[in-house]
Specification:
Elements lengths: L1 H8 L11 E2 L6 E11 L13 E3 L5 E6 L11 E6 L7 E5 L9 E6 L2 E8 L2 E10 L4 E12 L4 E9 L5 E8 L5 E10 L3 E12 L5 E6 L4 E8 L6 E8 L10 E7 L11 E4 L5 E7 L2 E8 L4 E6 L10 E6 L4 E7 L2 E7 L6 E7 L8 E2 L5 E2 L3 E2 L3 E9 L9 E9 L1
């Protein structure tokens, strides 16, 4: 294990005028251990571009996970878990009807409500819940089906609300002939009605497409992946903004790579907006991890590699501290690394390497999906997914391992 730590600390990085990473690590206190959360869904915390982890003002943590089909327990797959401040365990507070092992979801807290959008079969649902800080639980669930089709399947939805209190949803839509396109809905009254809000990118049989909606205060922006058609098809990472007239600007292509290089769902990216309106975006490019920064003042993008050489870095997250610092969390093989910036993403320093323990031959860390909150104020909780090795008597069980970093 010591030799592995040594290799990770001295892997080469690429320096540029926009982005620079030093090898000096900051001291960090780490609490770690297996959580009580278990399930059977392989994508327990997928996709990367969605948000599922939030804090409330009382310090409680709230996590939406897919626990797999639980027909014998008469419960749906998507479960909202709560961990009270200072508590060691998680408890399930609610499950979302019409969700199965394939369902994915996105959430946000706005006006003291928790808003959720999730997929299930050929339907898309919006839910709203109220938080009780005395009981540390969510209640008063209200919901509305916002999309239904007999021939088209929605997936990978994301959710945002603009300064005019209009809600926006973007999701991937697959038709009967397996043609895929990114599409959107919007609503001023999400529990009543939703309207079409446009389509983006190509419509073809290449499925690696997913969108992330962001509120820039000046309006809604969309980051999305797309795949072009043809023998020389490319996977692209794109950026567009909604205009005052409801149209969308011509997309800016941030990256173009050979199609199908690493991201089967087009979702292995994470993005967040800081208090100054800058966008911080991370995406693996041929397993070279790349960071993109949108400057709110100049309205220009810059990019640079975090890791120069490929190191199987395919899972990543962006988290913002309430003091303005930006954190990038990503896997290097089976392990995780955290780097931070105290100048809104202009430069970064290495914070800590999160090396998981050896739990025995019965555990598989080969798909180290990672989940962190988009915004935090104290310790940074980092969840890493692992699996138990299936046996003749028992199938694989998904687990979550917690690192708690005090930067």
């Amino acid at each position: 294990m010591k030799s592995l730590r040594h290799r990770l600390l001295f892997w080469p990085v690429l320096f540029s005028s926009v982005f620079f990473l030093t090898a000096t690590a900051h001291a960090a206190s780490i609490i770690e251990g297996l959580t009580t959360i278990t399930g059977t869904a392989e994508r327990m915390i997928s996709y990367r571009h969605q948000e599922r982890f939030v804090f409330t003002d009382d310090g409680s943590q709230h996590l939406l996970v897919n626990l797999g089909n639980r027909d014998s327990e008469n419960q749906a797959a998507l479960a909202l878990m709560v961990k009270e401040s200072g508590d060691l365990g998680w408890k399930e507070t609610i499950d979302l009807e019409c969700s199965d092992h394939e369902s994915t979801a996105d959430l946000l807290i706005h006006d003291n409500y928790l808003h959720i959008v999730h997929s299930c079969g050929k339907e898309l649902w919006y839910s709203r819940l109220t938080y009780d800080p005395h009981l540390f639980t969510w209640w008063n669930l209200k919901k509305r089906r916002i999309f239904k089709s007999f021939t088209q399947t929605p997936s990978a939805p994301t959710l945002a609300v603009d300064n005019d209190q209009t809600f926006h949803v973007a999701f991937t839509l697959t038709g009967r002939t397996n043609k895929v396109q990114l599409t959107g809905l919007s609503s001023e009254k999400p529990l009543r009605s939703w309207d079409d809000a446009g389509v983006w990118g190509s419509k073809n049989r290449r499925p690696a497409k997913a969108g992330r909606l962001l509120n820039l205060d000046t309006g809604i922006a969309l980051i999305y992946t797309d795949v072009s058609s043809g023998d020389d098809s490319q996977s692209t990472l794109n950026f567009t903004r909604a205009t005052s007239g409801g149209n969308w600007t011509v997309p800016v292509v941030l990256e173009a790579t050979p199609a199908g290089f690493h991201d089967p769902y087009g979702s292995h990216y994470s993005a967040s907006v800081d208090e100054q309106g800058n966008i911080h975006l991370i995406w693996p490019v041929d397993k070279h991890l790349k960071y993109y920064r949108y400057d709110a003042t100049t309205e220009q993008w810059n990019s640079s590699f975090v890791l120069e050489n490929p190191h199987n870095a395919v899972y990543s997250q962006v988290s913002l501290h309430t003091d303005g610092r930006v954190f990038l969390i990503f896997n290097i093989g089976e392990q995780l690394q955290v780097i931070e910036s105290d100048d809104y993403g202009l430069t970064y320093t290495s914070t800590v390497i999160l090396i998981h323990p050896l739990l025995g031959e019965g555990y598989d860390w080969a798909q180290p999906r990672v989940e962190t909150p988009a915004i935090f104020s104290d310790r940074l909780p980092v969840l890493q997914q692992l699996s138990t090795v299936p046996t003749a008597e028992l199938g694989s069980v998904e687990r979550l391992y917690l690192f708690s970093v005090a930067p």
